[in-house]
């Protein structure tokens, strides 16, 4: 039996496929197919989808009501299970609307009822048209696998009172801790992990910085010729003016020094780098320091030396590295025509000052 | 057929009816209704009609299910036949003045209109919305649609 053309059929099918399937869809689809087969045999050529669906629904209802009525009659006669005669009586109930021969007789025998006769007649006349598809038995009930008992596992029950044939306990960690405790524990645990991660991140970034500078620092020093740098520094009026640099130095230096030291302590590799750099820095600045020593007044000189010794080489290098790469080009013209001290640049220029101090003298 | 003979003789007495019934029930085993047993079994179980043990597939239980299946099939066939008569009558009434379109409209289509009329006789009131429309191309040949 055709569905009135492929296009309309596909259009009708679309909402069905989009809809979420419920448990009854399968049986309803089967009912539709069966009804369509019956209609085809009766003589219909095509059908409206809605009409077929309606008829299939009615078929399902019919089966339901027959079952209910049969069950009712079985219970009425004191039985839990219905038999064939209960079904016949249920069919008579449903056929009362139509009417059948012998319906008016209350005490008629069921075997001679008009319904039964009609059924027999229909079964004899109708040709066998089996259902189009082979259907598996449904609904499929998934059988659960029972948990294995203590005996099957081969364990001894934890308490004597528990017989061995009972299902075994789950793993102890699944029930040992109450949920609230678990939550807290997991919280603190995650916090710890996060803290550790953050620390590791910081350390890694510090190490990376140091590595970068250890690589780029000396090279930059080599690249930037000392004489050239000196020239630029000397020509810079901003840097040449000695300011209250001691105070600033203290504030800016202390914190990074600690960090870098810690990192250096924690990471022997990084420490090596630092040490190497330290040496290289000292070597590169050796002549400048010498000159400074010779020229400057003693008190000043002592201070300087102490500070230089105390000053961590890494921090010192950070400033230099940055500046040697970027600053000389940028800052010198600015400072040249500006010529005044800008408070915004104080922090950045501190290092330059220091550098200047070192190289000027 | 034996059944027919029995049916004709049924007026003779109650004994013949019993014999016919037993024969009918036994013949149900060999009869395969269009409505599958699984469907009937499923919905009977849903309605609370209990079988002693379905898995045993005992003769009595099988008989009951088959009986309901045949009864349902008979019901559907009757409704469908009535709807077909409605359809034919409607077509005969409408097409009188439109003889040209007769070829196209002659297809027998199971429509809501005919079905609801047929079902009303069986005590089922089918009411669909006033402007509920099926696809207008329903029942047309795909070839004729393309034209």
From TrEMBL, chain A:
<feature type="region of interest" description="Disordered">
    <location>
        <begin position="1"/>
        <end position="21"/>
    </location>
</feature>
<dbReference type="GO" id="GO:0005669">
    <property type="term" value="C:transcription factor TFIID complex"/>
</dbReference>
<feature type="region of interest" description="Disordered">
    <location>
        <begin position="327"/>
        <end position="348"/>
    </location>
</feature>
<dbReference type="GO" id="GO:0046982">
    <property type="term" value="F:protein heterodimerization activity"/>
</dbReference>
<keyword id="KW-0805">Transcription regulation</keyword>
<protein>
    <recommendedName>
        <fullName>Transcription initiation factor TFIID subunit 8</fullName>
    </recommendedName>
</protein>
<dbReference type="InterPro" id="IPR019473">
    <property type="entry name" value="TFIID_su8_C"/>
</dbReference>
<dbReference type="Pfam" id="PF10406">
    <property type="entry name" value="TAF8_C"/>
</dbReference>
<dbReference type="InterPro" id="IPR009072">
    <property type="entry name" value="Histone-fold"/>
</dbReference>
<dbReference type="InterPro" id="IPR006565">
    <property type="entry name" value="BTP"/>
</dbReference>
<keyword id="KW-0804">Transcription</keyword>
<keyword id="KW-0539">Nucleus</keyword>
<comment type="similarity">
    <text>Belongs to the TAF8 family.</text>
</comment>
<dbReference type="Pfam" id="PF07524">
    <property type="entry name" value="Bromo_TP"/>
</dbReference>
<dbReference type="InterPro" id="IPR037818">
    <property type="entry name" value="TAF8"/>
</dbReference>
<feature type="region of interest" description="Disordered">
    <location>
        <begin position="214"/>
        <end position="233"/>
    </location>
</feature>
<feature type="domain" description="Bromodomain associated">
    <location>
        <begin position="24"/>
        <end position="100"/>
    </location>
</feature>
From TrEMBL, chain B:
<dbReference type="Pfam" id="PF03540">
    <property type="entry name" value="TAF10"/>
</dbReference>
<keyword id="KW-0539">Nucleus</keyword>
<dbReference type="GO" id="GO:0005669">
    <property type="term" value="C:transcription factor TFIID complex"/>
</dbReference>
<dbReference type="GO" id="GO:0016251">
    <property type="term" value="F:RNA polymerase II general transcription initiation factor activity"/>
</dbReference>
<keyword id="KW-0804">Transcription</keyword>
<dbReference type="GO" id="GO:1990841">
    <property type="term" value="F:promoter-specific chromatin binding"/>
</dbReference>
<dbReference type="GO" id="GO:0006367">
    <property type="term" value="P:transcription initiation at RNA polymerase II promoter"/>
</dbReference>
<comment type="similarity">
    <text>Belongs to the TAF10 family.</text>
</comment>
<dbReference type="InterPro" id="IPR003923">
    <property type="entry name" value="TAF10"/>
</dbReference>
<comment type="function">
    <text>TAFs are components of the transcription factor IID (TFIID) complex that is essential for mediating regulation of RNA polymerase transcription.</text>
</comment>
<protein>
    <recommendedName>
        <fullName>Transcription initiation factor TFIID subunit 10</fullName>
    </recommendedName>
</protein>
<keyword id="KW-0805">Transcription regulation</keyword>
<dbReference type="GO" id="GO:0000124">
    <property type="term" value="C:SAGA complex"/>
</dbReference>
């Amino acid at each position: 039996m055709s569905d009135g053309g492929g296009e309309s059929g596909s259009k009708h099918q679309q909402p069905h496929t989009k809809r979420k399937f419920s448990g009854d869809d399968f049986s309803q689809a089967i009912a539709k197919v069966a009804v369509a087969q019956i209609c085809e045999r009766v003589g219909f050529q095509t059908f409206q989808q809605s009409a077929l669906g309606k008829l299939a629904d009615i078929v399902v209802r019919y089966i339901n009501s027959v079952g209910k009525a049969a069950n009712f009659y079985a219970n009425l006669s004191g039985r839990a299970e219905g038999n064939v005669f209960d079904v016949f009586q249920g069919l008579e109930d449903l056929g009362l609307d139509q009417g059948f021969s012998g319906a008016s007789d209350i005490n008629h025998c069921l075997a001679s009822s008009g319904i039964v006769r009609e059924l027999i007649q229909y079964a004899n006349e109708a040709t066998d048209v089996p259902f189009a598809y082979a259907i598996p038995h449904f609904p499929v009930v998934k059988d659960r696998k029972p948990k294995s008992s203590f005996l099957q596992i081969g364990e001894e029950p934890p308490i004597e009172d528990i017989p061995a044939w009972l299902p075994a306990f789950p793993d102890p960690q699944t029930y040992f801790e109450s949920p609230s405790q678990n939550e807290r524990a997991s919280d603190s645990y995650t916090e710890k992990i996060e803290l550790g991660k953050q620390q590791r991140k910081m350390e890694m970034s510090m190490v990376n910085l140091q590595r970068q500078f250890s690589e780029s620092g000396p090279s930059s020093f080599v690249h930037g010729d000392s004489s050239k740098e000196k020239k630029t520094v000397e020509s810079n009026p901003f840097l040449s003016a000695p300011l209250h640099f001691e105070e600033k130095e203290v504030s800016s230096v202390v914190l990074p020094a600690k960090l870098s030291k810690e990192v250096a302590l924690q990471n022997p590799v990084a420490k090596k780098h630092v040490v190497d750099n330290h040496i290289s820095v000292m070597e590169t600045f050796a002549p400048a320091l010498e000159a400074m020593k010779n020229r400057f007044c003693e008190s000043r000189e002592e201070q300087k030396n102490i500070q230089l010794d105390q000053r961590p080489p890494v921090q010192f290098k950070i400033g230099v590295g940055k500046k040697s790469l970027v600053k000389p080009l940028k800052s010198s013209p600015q400072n040249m025509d500006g010529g005044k001290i800008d408070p915004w640049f104080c922090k950045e220029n501190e290092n330059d000052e220091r550098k200047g101090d070192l190289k000027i003298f | 057929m034996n059944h027919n003979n029995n049916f004709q003789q049924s007026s003779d007495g109650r004994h013949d009816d019993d014999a016919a019934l037993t024969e009918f029930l036994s013949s149900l085993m060999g009869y395969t209704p269009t409505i599958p047993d699984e469907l009937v079994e499923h919905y009977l179980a849903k309605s609370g009609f209990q079988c002693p043990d379905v898995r045993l597939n005992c003769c009595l239980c099988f008989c009951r299910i088959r009986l309901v299946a045949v009864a349902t099939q008979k019901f559907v066939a009757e409704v469908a036949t009535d709807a077909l008569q409605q359809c034919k009558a409607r077509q005969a009434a409408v097409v009188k003045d439109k003889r040209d379109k007769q070829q196209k409209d002659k297809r027998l289509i199971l429509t809501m209109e005919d079905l609801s009329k047929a079902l009303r006789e069986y005590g089922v009131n089918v009411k669909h919305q006033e402007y509920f429309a099926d696809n207008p191309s329903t029942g047309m040949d795909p070839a004729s649609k393309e034209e």
